[in-house]
């Protein structure tokens, strides 16, 4: 349990990690939406 480098920092860096993860999920969902719109054509 000593290798928790992501959680041993301040709360600001933890929030930035969460926001970065949400941005990645948003980009992946946008790619899937574009793929589905291309399939409908």
Automatic annotation (TrEMBL):
Keywords: Membrane, Transmembrane, Transmembrane helix. The keyword Transmembrane helix applies. The chain crosses the membrane at residues 12-35. It comes from the Bacteria. It comes from Flavobacterium limicola. This is Uncharacterized protein.
């Amino acid at each position: 349990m000593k290798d928790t480098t992501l959680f041993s920092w301040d709360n600001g860096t933890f929030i930035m990690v969460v926001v970065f993860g949400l941005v990645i999920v948003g980009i992946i969902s946008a790619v899937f939406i574009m793929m589905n719109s291309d399939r409908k054509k």
